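S.,

Sequence below, as promised.
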Amino acid sequence: AHVADVPSYIQEQQEVVMCESAKLVQQTTSAAEKNVVHRVPLVNQLTFLGQSFSRLVDCTLGYLVQKIVKMLESCTGVSSLHVVINNIITLGLEGEHMCYMLAREGGVRALVDVCRRENVAFTRSKALRALATICCAPECVAELEKESGIDLLMDILTDENVIESVQGEAAGVVAQITSPVLDQNQHLCRFAESLQVILTALLGLCEKTEGHETFLLSAAAVANITFIDSSACG
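The prediction came back faster than expected:
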């Protein structure tokens, strides 16, 4: 049975999966009746079924991610906003493909908007942590730069009025997007332009902080920056 609010493209893909499943059943039944197994057609049909099922899963996950991003964009209450951000963090921990889907459906843009519009420090910290979590995928890093996220990070790190916990989370995002395992950091034009300003802010944060986590995140960001740009060592 179809759920009423399921988009038509998901329902259509469900039908494709059912059709491919029926073909597989037909082939296996025919092979059993004739006591003759033609391996190539069966393997091909299994491949078609697997591909159609993968597309169904991708469509369904994409739809659910869309719903979560829309909730993030429309949330007005702080507690509900935190719940949605926690859900995004959980999804991001599922792996790079899920992070790619979050970027594809506007998750990075929505999180950057939350960081800009929310004055509650805890909320900004959570949104920044979510960004750090999902920016393990190159697509997310590209989206972050596209949405002026680098400027946002620089503003947070250089603003003396921003509390240290928020700056620490911003340092965590910098550490993630400059990770040596990401090729994308070689193409962050805006980051390259702001490198010295960000590096100075991170070093200052390392010096003044008494929090172990903030120090580790800032130090990791500094180390990554010097790894991708040796001129920063000077």
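The first helix runs from residue 8 to 34.

Coffee later?
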